[in-house]
């Protein structure tokens, strides 16, 4: 039997993301997951990097992309949806629970997802862009979770959503999640002044 209090608390976090998207185009929640899980995912990202498993990101989807350091400077590693790593399975379980909640409450029909680790080194950035491609409309919602420890405004690397007549800035502190429609919100990662870590991905309808 599920822990009813945990389920209620988790549902409130899910509702916060959805309400933020509906009212401000971008939903975000701090402390979306435990500090323990954030640390374990951060450690896994760093292990991937140290073992040479992270590579320069490109512009495009998971299978077809072009590298352009003038647009984005992060290195990434894709997370397999059927990963056998316990820490990744815990993250994927949360994603699946959110998808289930989204489909039950908003009838979105999401039936797939893809995520990757992302590391922005000092001096890296990602210029303003939209996540959905004209040739591939499968990406419906973007979902980013930050893994950074003790992040401060002076560290840079803020997520900035450029909306009509306004903008939203989110500090990439560990455990914070942001959520928005992939085809509607132009956004960027500002210049990072220290190493910036996250898991970024998309909820898809294929």
UniProtKB/TrEMBL annotation:
A GO molecular-function descriptor: L-ascorbic acid binding
InterPro entries associated with the record: HIF_prolyl_hydroxylases (IPR051559), Pro_4_hyd_alph (IPR006620), Pro_4_hyd_alph_FE2OG_OXY (IPR044862)
Domain called Prolyl 4-hydroxylase alpha subunit: residue spans: 24-204
Source organism, top-level taxon: Bacteria
Cofactor annotation: L-ascorbate
One Pfam short name: 2OG-FeII_Oxy_3
Keyword Oxidoreductase: yes
Signal peptide: none
Protein keywords: Dioxygenase, Oxidoreductase, Vitamin C
GO BP terms: cellular response to hypoxia
Name this protein carries in UniProt: 2OG-Fe(II) oxygenase
């Amino acid at each position: 039997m599920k822990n009813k209090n945990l389920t209620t608390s988790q549902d409130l976090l899910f509702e916060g993301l959805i309400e933020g998207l509906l009212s401000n185009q971008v939903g975000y929640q701090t402390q979306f997951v435990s500090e323990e899980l954030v640390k374990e995912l951060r450690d896994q990202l760093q292990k991937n990097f140290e073992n040479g498993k992270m590579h320069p990101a490109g512009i495009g989807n998971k299978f077809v992309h072009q590298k352009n350091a003038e647009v984005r400077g992060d290195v990434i590693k894709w997370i397999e949806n059927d990963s056998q790593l316990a820490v990744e399975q815990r993250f994927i379980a949360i994603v699946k629970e959110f998808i289930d909640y989204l489909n039950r409450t908003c009838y979105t029909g999401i039936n797939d997802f893809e995520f990757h680790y992302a590391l922005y080194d000092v001096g890296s950035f990602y210029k303003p862009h939209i996540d959905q491609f004209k040739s591939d409309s499968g990406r419906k919602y973007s979902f980013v979770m930050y893994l950074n420890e003790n992040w401060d405004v002076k560290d840079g690397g803020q997520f900035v959503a450029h909306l009509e007549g306004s903008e939203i800035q989110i500090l990439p502190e560990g455990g914070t999640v942001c959520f928005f429609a992939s085809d509607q919100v132009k956004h960027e990662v500002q210049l990072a002044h220290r190493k910036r870590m996250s898991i970024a991905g998309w909820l898809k309808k294929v």
